[in-house]
Amino acid sequence: MRRLTASQVQAAAADWFARTLSGDATTAELHQLEAWLEADPRHRGAFIRTQAMWHFLDAPAQAAAGQDLASEIPDEPPVSQGWRPSRRVLLGGALAIAASVAAIQIIPDVLFAEHQSLATRRGETSANTLSDGSQIVLDAESHAEISLKRSQRHVELVSGEGWFRVAKDKSRPFVVEANGITVTAVGTAFSVDKSDRIRVVVSEGVVQIASSGGEPVQVHRNQTAVISDGTVQITTLNDEEVRRRLAWREGYIGFNGETLAEAVASFNRFNNEQLVVADEKLGDRRVVGWFSRNDPWGFAKASATMLGGRVDRVNDRIILSRE
Amino acid sequence: MADNVMRWIADNLLPHEAEVRGWLRKRRTAGEDEDDLVQEAYCRIAAVDDVIAVRNGRAYFFATIRNLLMERARREKIIKFETMAEFDVSSIIDENPSAERVLGGKNQLELVQRMIDSLPARCRDVFFLRKFQQLGQRETAALLGVSENIVEKEVARGMRLLLAMMAEPECNHAAVRQ
Fold first, then answer.
1. How large is the ipTM?
2. From the candidates A33, A87, A88, A89, which should be mutated to test the interface with B, based on the most B CB atoms within 10 A?
């Protein structure tokens, strides 16, 4: 949808408001309205603002309802001088009230959910605080669709990895969904990674994981769960290991016995500057340590020292080879 | 949306909107930017659970606007992630709205009257019948001798005009001074 300017948004919101108030809006139109509200938080905000304005007018409306218009046109309108409809309308209004055709319009209860779309590019992580106080840190090349509703806080992890610190709210569970698997929390912190299989790391509290068919499983603090083919495999981790697995949030990457080839793949997912392991045997060697994720050159130098290799820069690539 | 939430927004956000906009203008965030932020703030606040329990709608309005500015800055890479902690929203708003900023019931009544009064004649008549006499669209159209479509158009036009007035800081203050 083309992005409207703020004043176009407000004009459209006023039109929609008038449509819903008319009482003549068709189901198709209400669906159209819902889609419009979903499309952009500014649309929803402008519509809410318009509804609020209508409510704001209530104080005089209540005062005006006390007028006895059927008897006579008052010399001094009881509301005050400021609010004075035309004489014709006062008469007409009186007749209408006599005919007792007053109708209160009800604005349809369009779903009022807050939506947010978060996405990161290669080499970038992003930290976000939601309006409920929950925090989301999104890893590089990740995409999450967030929808805060009154009954549920829902995040669809479309791709990549995210870490979530959930603000406590028992009445509104926080659900992260990835490939149809749901991870549900009330107040806790955990990450979900769908880079290959779904991996969940819980760093605080407890979450419940449900996949289609299987019984829901609880995963506690310092545990990780790997979900594949409907089975959930849980492993307990120590504090250090949990920190390592979540180090990406601070821009680090920690290795604890991964092969050089795996480590290089992690760096290459994050950086435009690509690492190449020119020797298969070297790629099978194992690496340990913490590195800045955006410094593949530093990592290459350190691993070369560690594993006895050499580093060369060739045409924007960093080549790791045996000495 | 629950009626009490809408009531809360009408009583606790809308009256402070002009002041929030004034603050944004001082920060050189005006025009489209200002409107975008205000619209997003309404959306965000309306989605908050138990928002009607919030006492100080004004502070909440400001805090939300600050949050949105902060997110925008982050998106635009103006500040780094590490400095985010400095934007703690709980500490930014002075909690004592001065007397002129508070729109009490009586002032609200006066403000609404002034605003309605400034509407074009047919628009004003439509609002009188639709809102204050709570007549349906068809009855209103019949009484005014116009089509229902015209009534709907006048409602939309009136809402646009009222909201534009609500956005101007002078509007509230003028009403309060009276």
1. 0.83
2. A89
